[in-house]
């Protein structure tokens, strides 16, 4: 069966409407670019880079407010200490594999130098999940050129999912995982706001995997879709990036980032000890030029955050499920095989529980 997104299979989660593309790029100004690296010689490599531009090409001079949350910290996302202090992002955000996060972080600096960004220095955000089960990450295959290609390829519109970009070599709930995205739209006092999420999913146990509350991981057992014996249990990580056009301050972005935990839990993530579950949220609703002495900004009321929380949780949940549904079976190093979730069986299970449209 051809790979398809969750809603294309007749399965919907949550109760809020999606944006036009059901992607993080539904937030105006947000662009995503990806570059993948797949080869067998001189080593078996299944990796890549995913780049998110928070608010278009002028992010260097018109920064956005941001906040982060670490659900379980066995992972890396650079630049968070400065975000905690300053509350601003002024560069693209990149996601890659564990062994390449430093190089990709430096590549963002190289892009800034290449494009004559005005800042005196750069402390950009680069994050990772581990693809060393399928890919020879110790060969350090990611290059500055690959990272620059991902950033230069960034565009609005639909986002490629599954085995692409930084998610190329990832596993999720003992199926093939990778890159996924989704969005939600909320209305508050006549104002419409969009919340989008992009995930790099590489975590989780089969038995915990749920779709719209249905225990799919228990229905599609390892007897039917085998888990390789040498795939370590309860390992891996997930990176979640949440964007919104609601006008938020840094502490509100931090609160929004925490709600990715709810979406992760709905799918079956528990934040295992060996998992790096790190979340970042940013708002395009305020733009701040760091060289302007005083900036006028807006903010939604505290009680207005509740619908945004729900949207963030729902978008995170569906982004993970889109990553798994779109990912294809992949053979990596040592003949290891990460098997795709069988979509026909997923539909059968959802029909059994009365969840198929």
Description:
The chain has 357 residues and is of the alpha+beta class. The protein has one domain: 4-Layer Sandwich (L-amino peptidase D-ALA esterase/amidase), CATH 3.60.70. It is built from 8 helices and 14 strands. The chain has helices spanning 80-86, 101-114, 144-152, 216-219, 250-258, 260-267, 305-326, 343-352, and strands spanning 31-39, 45-53, 63-73, 88-89, 93-97, 125-129, 171-172, 175-176, 178-188, 191-202, 235-244, 274-288, 330-331, 337-338. Helix 6 (260-267) packs across helix 7 (305-326). The mean pLDDT is 96.
Query: If you compute it from the alpha carbons, what radius of gyration comes out, rounded to the nearest whole angstrom?
Result: 19 Å
State the total count of DSSP E strands. 14
Return the structural class: alpha+beta
CATH class: Alpha Beta
Order of H and E elements:
EEEHEEHEHEEEEHEHHEHEEH
Mean pLDDT: 96
Known CATH architecture: 4-Layer Sandwich
Give the overall silhouette: globular
Name of the CATH homologous superfamily:
L-amino peptidase D-ALA esterase/amidase
Number of helices: 8
- What's the CATH topology name? L-amino peptidase D-ALA esterase/amidase
List the helices and strands and how they pair.
Layout: E1 31-39, E2 45-53, E3 63-73, H1 80-86, E4 88-89, E5 93-97, H2 101-114, E6 125-129, H3 144-152, E7 171-172, E8 175-176, E9 178-188, E10 191-202, H4 216-219, E11 235-244, H5 250-258, H6 260-267, E12 274-288, H7 305-326, E13 330-331, E14 337-338, H8 343-352
Helix pairs in contact: 2-3, 5-7, 6-7
């Amino acid at each position: 069966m051809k790979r398809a997104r969750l809603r294309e299979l007749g399965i919907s989660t949550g109760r809020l409407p999606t944006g036009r593309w059901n992607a993080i790029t539904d937030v105006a100004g947000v662009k995503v670019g990806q570059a993948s690296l797949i080869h067998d010689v001189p080593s078996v490599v299944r990796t890549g880079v995913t780049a998110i531009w928070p608010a278009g090409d002028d992010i260097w001079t018109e920064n956005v407010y941001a906040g982060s949350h670490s659900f379980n910290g066995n992972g890396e996302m650079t630049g968070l200490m400065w975000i905690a202090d300053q509350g601003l992002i002024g560069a693209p955000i990149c996601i890659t594999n564990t062994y390449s996060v430093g190089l990709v972080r430096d590549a963002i600096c190289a892009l800034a130098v290449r494009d004559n960004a005005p800042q005196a220095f750069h402390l950009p955000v680069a994050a990772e999940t581990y693809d060393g089960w399928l890919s020879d990450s110790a060969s350090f295959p990611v290059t500055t050129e690959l990272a620059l290609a991902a950033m230069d390829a960034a565009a609005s519109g639909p986002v490629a999912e599954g085995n692409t970009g930084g998610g190329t070599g990832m596993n999720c709930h003992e199926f093939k995982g990778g890159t996924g995205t989704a969005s939600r739209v909320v209305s508050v006092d006549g104002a419409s706001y969009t919340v989008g999420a992009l995930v790099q999913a590489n975590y989780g146990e089969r038995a915990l995997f749920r779709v719209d509350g249905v225990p799919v991981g228990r229905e599609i057992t390892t007897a039917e879709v085998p888990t390789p014996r040498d795939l370590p249990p309860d390992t891996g990580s997930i990176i979640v990036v949440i964007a919104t056009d609601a006008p938020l301050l840094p502490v509100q972005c931090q609160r929004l980032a925490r709600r990715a935990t709810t979406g992760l839990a709905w799918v079956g993530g528990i934040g295992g000890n060996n998992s790096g579950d790190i979340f970042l949220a940013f708002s395009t609703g305020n733009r701040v030029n760091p060289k302007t002495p005083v900036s006028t900004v807006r903010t939604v009321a505290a009680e207005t955050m509740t619908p945004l929380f729900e949207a963030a949780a729902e978008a995170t949940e569906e982004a993970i499920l889109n990553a798994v549904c779109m990912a294809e079976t992949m053979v990596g190093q040592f003949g290891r095989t990460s098997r795709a979730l069988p979509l026909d069986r997923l539909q059968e299970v959802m029909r059994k529980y009365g969840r198929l449209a």
